[in-house]
Amino acid sequence: ADSLYVSEYFSQSAQKLSFYSWYGNAKLFHFHVPEDTVLLRWLLQASRGKGPECTDMEVTVHFRYGAPPVINPLGTRFPPNATVRPSYNVSIALAGAAHNTTFVNITTPAAGDWFIAAHLPQAAGRIEVKGFSTPCPYVFQADMFVLRLTDMPVLEPGVAMPQTIVAPAKPLHVKVFVPKHAARMRLELRSCVASEQKACALRVVLGSITLPQSFQRIVTCVGNITCSLALDSPPWEKWLQIMVESLGAANGSVSLVMLASFTACRPGSSSSFLSFISLNQSQTGARPGSTGAAGSSAVPAAEPSRNESKQRSSSCLQTQPVVREDLDVVSVRYRLLNGPSVPVGSLSPTLLLLNLNTGMDSGGSLVVNLLLNKTSLSLANATVAACVSAASPVLSLNATQNCSTAFFQGYPLSMGTSSAEAMLIVLYPQTDVWFLSLQLLCPKGQGECKASEAKVTVFAYLTPCFNDCGPYGQCSLLRRHGYLYAGCSCKAGWGGWSCTDDSKAQSVGVQNLATLLLTLSNLMFLPAIAVAVHRCYLVEASVYTYTMFFSTFYHACDQPGVAVMCIMDYDTLQYCDFLGSVVSIWVTILCMSRVKKILKYVLFVLGTLLIAMSLQLDRRGVWNMMGPCLFALVIMIAAWVHHGARRGRCYPPSWKRWVFYLLPGIALAFVAISVYAFMETNENYYYTHSIWHVLVACSVAFLLPPRDKQKKPWAWPQKLTCRYQICQNDREELYAVT
Predict the structure, then answer these.
(1) Which of 39, 146, 268, 587 has the smallest count of CB within 10 Å of its CB?
(2) What are 176's strand-pairing partners?
(3) What confidence score (pLDDT) does residue 282 get?
């Protein structure tokens, strides 16, 4: 009946989209699909602003089950040994309308974590000054609707369960729990009888849909014969959904009998929990097969070496106890209690359990490194096959099986005498229990290496960013509500998931050139400092010296490549550079206004304090520079009007001052502002910003007013031989003998 279904609605707040340059630009949405969900519907809403700056845009939305989507919009290279499977995505066009709504439906979705990532196309690369232009807002929101069956029938293993499909529009949903150590599952449909004496026509679907890849098993049963479906390595300790729908007449019903059976895989024997705890000291005894103490998990281990051959012949897998050590956020190390080396035989695989089911482990990279001890391998042509899989292990590694389980395609590895090392990087591993299976293979059959054994050293760990993004990247920890994940922000032209793609990388020579241009261009302040000192503007000269010093060392520390030198904290250097730049403009314009000295110095100090406060509030805001400039210009214009009205002529009065100093200085300042605000990009930053340094410094040298006529250059007090001192009073222009 319809009352057996319950609909639920989940929503998250909308997020403003960004143009894509690295994974941090993608906006992530995290949802949890409840158990027994038979229908999932995503409501995707994208909208844009209404201003003239808003153009047609395409929003790309990626979906993935169990972990954030692994995407590559820029087409860059992934690190070697990394596993990459294309993500499932849809595109939402914002062409004519300012709002677009799209639905995505998924039947029988897998229960657990689902992730959505949305982003705009690739960023243009232009450096925009905050406040000069208003970017168009593009907003995306994802809502989730689920239809859940409240009383889904449970199919018990070994117990026949009769069921009836009322109509094709109402398929039958049942679930069965897969026990641990299940090696094979078999589902049978018997005694199928259709109404009106018609032949049965059924469609059976096992498993749930997962994105980007789905491994549902589908079989069509026709007639009254027994229909069966077998699964190798079904997911351990999970509910498995089974959907049966009728393909017959619209009003016809179908009755049938369902039966599920499992074939168990007998692991190595286990002993008491106390033996597991004391294993770290004694290194003897067997291990338990269930989860141990907090922070550790294990599966049953083999008997000691004296009984190992017997255990291998009587069990289908040999397990090694593994301890999970949480080091930090999205940082885990797996430690083998029997040492880093594990024995690998040919009769049954050696199994290691890697626990990644805490819900907070899918935001990093799982790294598995295997090293074969060549001296332990007696047969030169033998190989050690390995398989990393989620949910259930691969219990038979041979040439015919491609490292796959019932609902997961694993990642194969191989080692031999010619290549003794193998490495695997799983980017954003899905939340689940992962397994590492190892088995010794011989080209002439398993009988050839029946008595042989190989030693393999296993290093497995979970890290936020593989290799910490390398020398040309920065690992950033990202957050969406309570979920944490990591991404690499690359620099110096490097790209890729772990900043390993050097196709557009800057050479060391280009990096050195960029550093030299950005630092040595600040030496153009030396002429401005010399002019200020010559004209007795010592305070202004001190400000220019401060600006030149901190701008030089800030850009030496701000370089993305290897040519970097930081004399102090980066944030301190950046703040001092911004402060010196704005204060330099402030004191220059006030100096040009020719106000009284006491008023000028008061404005110097008060303006510097206000500029320091505004930069602390918003360091990159355009009004932090434009505000003091405009206010200083108002003061200068008012002072010039006052001087001109008092003298009865234009101020400054000399046409040479206008033609040879003021107009060139103003032109240089306007060109500098244009380069800074409209021409800088990530590619040309090192020379356009250097031009900005040169133009600003030259404009200051032109705009500084001449020295006061009453003040002599370097008029230091003159000392007389008779110990009398002549003092000069600038206000009264009198001399007094003291």
Answers:
(1) 39
(2) 240
(3) 40
Three-class HEC string of 106-125: EECECCEEEEEEEEEEECCC
User: 174 near 154, Cβ under 8 Å?
Assistant: yes
d(CA 248, CA 167): 9
pLDDT at 728 over 60: no
**DSSP string covering 45-81:** EEEE--STT---EEEEEEEEESS-----TT-PPPPTT
Q: What is the rounded distance in angstroms from the CA atom of residue 14 to the CA atom of residue 101?
A: 14
Q: Which of 528, 578, 527 has the alpha carbon at shortest distance from 550?
A: 578
DSSP per position, 365-379: EEEEEEEEEGGG---
CA distance linking residue 450 with residue 442, whole number of Å:
9
Element holding 605 (H helix, E strand): helix 597-617
Tokens of 324: 């999970």
Report the share of the chain in percent with pLDDT over 70: 87
Angle at 181 between CA 178 and CA 186, to 5 degrees: 50
Summary mean pLDDT of the chain:
84
Cis peptide before 168 (omega within 30 of 0): no
Spatial separation of the C-alpha atoms in residues 373 and 162, rounded to whole Å:
55
Contact indicator for 4, 150 with CB cutoff of 8 Å: yes
Q: What domains are defined for the chain?
A: 5-149 (2.60.120.380), 159-264 (2.60.120.260), 315-463 (2.60.120.680), 508-703 (1.20.1070)
Q: Which of 64, 57, 127 is nearest to 94 (CA)?
A: 57
CA distance 202 to 280: 55
Could you report the per-residue pLDDT of 151-198, keeping only the tens digit for each?
889 999 999 999 888 877 788 899 999 999 999 999 999 888 887 667
Q: What is the CA 317 to chain-centroid distance, rounded?
A: 37
pLDDT digits (tens, 9 = 90+) for 15-73: 999 999 999 999 999 999 999 999 999 999 999 988 888 888 999 999 999 999 999 99
**Phi, psi torsion values for 115, nearest 5 degrees:** -125, 145
C-beta separation of 274 from 188 below 8 A: no
